[in-house]
Amino acid sequence: MRLAEDREAQPSAGVMDSQSVKAADTVGRDSRGYDAGKKINGRKRFIVTDT
Questions:
Q1: Where is this region: Disordered (predicted)?
Q2: Is 43 left (phi over 0), alpha (psi -120 to 50) or beta?
Q3: Which one, of 51, 9, 25, lies nearest residue 42 by Cα?
Q4: DSSP bridge pairs for 14
Q5: What is the pLDDT of residues 7-32, one digit of tens each?
Q6: Taking the domains of the chain in order of start, what are their residue ranges?
Q7: Which is nearest to 49 in space by CA: 9, 6, 13, 1?
Q8: Any bridge partners for residue 22, and if so which?
Q9: Are 42 and 23 in contact, with CB atoms under 8 Å apart?
Q10: How far apart are CA 20 and CA 2, in angstroms?
Q11: pLDDT at residue 48, rounded to an integer
Q12: Phi, psi of 31, rounded to the nearest 5 degrees
């Protein structure tokens, strides 16, 4: 994909971001966490993309 867009084969940098997603009370406690910064019970998901 990168070569098709006439870019270097290896990325020079990457960007990481995360998001806290609220979980319903019916979701088992063992499969959800707690984000103390946002005071949210739920899951945290991450994405990494190259630039």
A1: 1-36
A2: beta
A3: 25
A4: 50
A5: 888 888 999 999 888 887 777 777 77
A6: 14-50
A7: 13
A8: 42
A9: yes
A10: 30
A11: 93
A12: -110, 10
Helix (H) or strand (E) holding 43: strand 40-50
Angle at 50 between CA 48 and CA 51, to 5 degrees: 135
Q: Which two tokens stand for residue 49?
A: 């993309």
In contact, 18 and 45? CB cutoff 8 Å: yes
pLDDT at 47: 93
Residue 31's SS3 state is: helix
The two tokens of residue 12 are 């020079």
| The amino acid at 20 | S
Amino acid code (one letter) for 25:
D
Alpha-carbon gap, residue 47 to 35, rounded angstroms: 17
Residue at 27: amino acid letter: V
